[in-house]
Amino acid sequence: MPKAVSEPPAGEKLASSTTAEDAAVTLRAAAKAVQAELKQRSVSATGAGKSVLEATALMAADPMLIKGAVKLINTGASAERAIWDSAASVAEMLHNLGGYMAERSTDVLDVRSRIVAELRGVPAPGIPAADEPFILVADDLAPADTATLNPALVLALVTSGGGPQSHTAIIARALGLPAVVAAAGVEDIADGTSVFVDGAAGSISVDPDADQVAAAEAWATTAATLSVFSGEGSTADGHLVPLLANVGGAADAVKAAAAGAQGVGLLRTEFCFLDRDEEPTLDEQVTAYKGVFDAFPGKKVVVRTLDAGADKPLPFLTDASEPNPALGVRGYRTDFTSPGVLTRQLAAIATAAEGTEADVWVMAPMISTAEEAADFAAMCREAGLKTPGVMVEVPSAALTSETILGSVDFASLGTNDLTQYAMAADRQLGPLAALNTPWQPAVLRLIQLTVAGSVAEGNNKPVGVCGEAAADPALAVVLVGLGVNTLSMTARALSAVAAVLATVPLAEAQRLAAVALAAPSATEARDRVRAELPVLEEMGL
Amino acid sequence: MSERTATIASRVGLHARPAAIFAEAVGALPIEVTIALEGDPAEDAMDASSILSLMSLGAANGQVVVLRAEGDGADEALAGLVKILETDLDAE
Questions:
Q1: Which residues touch A290 (CB under 8 Å, ≥6 apart)?
Q2: Is A466 a catalytic residue?
Q3: Is B15 one of the annotated active-site residues of the chain?
Q4: Structural domain containing residue A46
Q5: Is the Cβ pair A64, B58 closer than 8 Å?
Q6: Residue B17 touches chain A, beta carbons under 8 Å
Q7: For labeling, which of A105, B51, B58, B59 is most exposed (least CB within 10 Å)?
Q8: Shared domain check, A437 and A502
Q9: ipTM
């Protein structure tokens, strides 16, 4: 995938060999070419994607955008810099109008990148359009790229940046695609090269041999047979472990229910808030939540309240100037700086819950102290929500889970953030990928301590896992051995996790948990546990 | 100078798809057409072939806009454009 387009240097001037008139002609031609490309793509698109492409195509050669740029060219700016600045002021104008217009400002910036790429003679940014299945090689993927990624055409993902918890990895798991991340040097693989990707081993080979071709074909068959899970998650000896789904909206929830999920262990509500300049209204929120609840009548749905900040900034809640956003005002903490948003969200959840048969639980992200947990529980009671809980993703919450569980009804371990905070390693950084795995014995120890806190509290309050760790079948066995009660994961992982768990008795899972805890490194922990689970190899997992 | 008024019929107002259809129709004409909200001064009128201008105009359903154009065929052109604005394009 072509790299993002870099900003032309501020104050870049027209080359002395070019007249302003020529530069304007070149710019208009580039804009027309981008417009034609987008128009061409809109022909084959359907639904919402089609009208977005049609509108974006019109923007590419829009008189307001181009006239603004030509004015700047006439004052001596280069064509690249002129379109850059002209689009920035148009985007700002749209942004200031708020609402729907503000959401369109990103389209203007996308068009700008395309025009600059055209002027430079480099490929347009974004996921390339293709007619046949391909392996996508990129620097890293942004959340916005998911919208344009067609799972029917993309076979695997390979990125040079990002870690196992990066967006690319999360997207890959959600789509059930093999992926290798933090693979330095892959950007040098030429377009059109035949590549073999082994997601389990984390390896990539160029020009695969016959064995590798056969393995790829075998995997395609396994992936198809493993795609359905039905019934109950349990160990070989009948110890029940409800397998739940992580979802980000009603469409996801319907898919998860079809995939056999026994409920929702994590409803990420920020998907209802992302790409918004203003807080969604009560009615909008009620509709969004109800859509999820209705997919799981009689089943548990755990709603996580808004987790804005760090890698998920929201214009109306996040202070973009924070020097250290992962340690900043995010999750539950936004209630300190923007009080009211959380109260209104809880009211919306309670209203949505009233009209459904789902068993609605609510939890707050980024809880660090027992005092915060008690405050959140009080807010939930005020809103009429009966089952308040907390996410355990800050190490302090894991260490004090006994006290925390004194005032809430359940805890859910968010292993992605718990790992990043326990290891002091940014999730998004490729060079720290080795530190950033939930197989780290220190992370497993924090999970064990959280469970021990619940046991000490004395009321059998459930402790679940809703991070990506639960989607790794080997790690899922370890988590059950550590005493975790429920596992929540992307719906695609349900069948694989259920299949592996059903072959392991509880006592064996406990023994494997001890093996992992005693390992000197994350790699050793993973290798030692996998070596004792030959079923993984048999299933190609 | 020809001048016509039209009432926005699209339920979403002159945004998104309706704005795209209208801007494209204006762009296909050989003359320049401006658009303004009724009551706004003529010198503040915007280029009607610009989807970005139309979006910033923010004309809602039921609002009246003024179209202006000069030159040969301006009257016929404006009549065609009024027809587009007075159709609920979003319903199609």
A1: A352, A355, A356
A2: yes
A3: yes
A4: 20-120
A5: no
A6: yes
A7: B58
A8: yes
A9: 0.85
